[in-house]
Amino acid sequence: MTSANRLAGYTLADWESLDPLQGHRVELVDGHLVVNAAPAVRHQRVADRLRTLLDDAVADDGMEAVTTVGLRVREGLGYIPDIVVSTERVETTTVDVDLVALVVEVVSPSTKKTDRLEKPAALAAAGVPAYWRVELDNTHDAGPTIYCYRLDGRTYLESAVLHPGTTDTVQVTGTVSITFDPADLHRARPRR
């Protein structure tokens, strides 16, 4: 199956009842099931390391950062972001958009348009307070670049750009900030 495979007329309940398809991610976009391949290893590495940083940062506020949980945006629209920061502990395979403080997408070659345009527009319209886009284009060199957006009305405004090789502080939620170098999400770890 490719990212172009679509089946029409599905609801959130239909989507939530699906079994994972051999590592593929199945999202619901306007009643269509969209099948995306499992992410590459470097994509997963960056997402996992960033999730750990975010989870450690928000834990004291009773929030949780999780990977690949289904996000119920509205009827006919359900995404599987790379990272979701939920305002509550996540106990199910899907979470309501009302419980989300931040969504992070690590851009893959097959998801560039969706991660750069479609998802931020839908999430802003749904009221998600923050959206981060992680670009891996230069990962083989220095590390990813992270574009951070904050909700302003029903659209996102860029609040920060984190470049590899620089240590910056960025706001995660209204009360939580983290400081890190995006290069650390990619570089090899020292052996012990």
What is the topological layout?
Layout: E1 6-7, H1 12-16, E2 25-29, E3 32-36, H2 41-58, E4 64-67, E5 70-74, E6 77-79, E7 83-86, E8 94-96, E9 100-106, H3 112-125, E10 130-135, E11 145-152, E12 155-162, E13 168-171, E14 177-180
Key structural traits:
single chain, alpha+beta, 6-stranded mixed sheet, 3 helices, disordered N terminus
How would you describe what is shown here?
It is a single chain. This protein is α+β, with helices and mostly antiparallel strands and 192 residues long. Helix content is 19%, strand content 35%. The protein is built from 3 helices and 14 strands. The chain has helices at residues 12-16, 41-58, 112-125, and strands at residues 6-7, 25-29, 32-36, 64-67, 70-74, 77-79, 83-86, 94-96, 100-106, 130-135, 145-152, 155-162, 168-171, 177-180. The longest helix is centred in the first third of the chain and has 18 residues, at 41-58. Mean pLDDT is 89; it is low at 1-7.
Largest sheet: 6 strands, mixed
Question: What do we call the CATH topology?
Answer: tt1808, chain A
CATH class: Alpha Beta
Query: What helical percentage do the residues reach?
Result: 10-25%
Helix/strand order: EHEEHEEEEEEHEEEEE
DSSP strand count: 14
Question: Which range does the strand content fall in?
Answer: 35-45%
- As for the number of domains, it is 1
CATH superfamily, called what?
A: tt1808, chain A
CATH architecture: Alpha-Beta Complex
Mean pLDDT over the full residue set: 89
Shape: globular
The end-to-end span amounts to 41 Å
| Whole-angstrom Rg | 16 Å
Q: Could you say which structural class the secondary elements and strand pairing correspond to? A: alpha+beta
Query: What is the helix tally?
Result: 3
**Order of strands in the sheet with most strands:** 1-3-2-6-5-8
The unreliable regions are 1-7
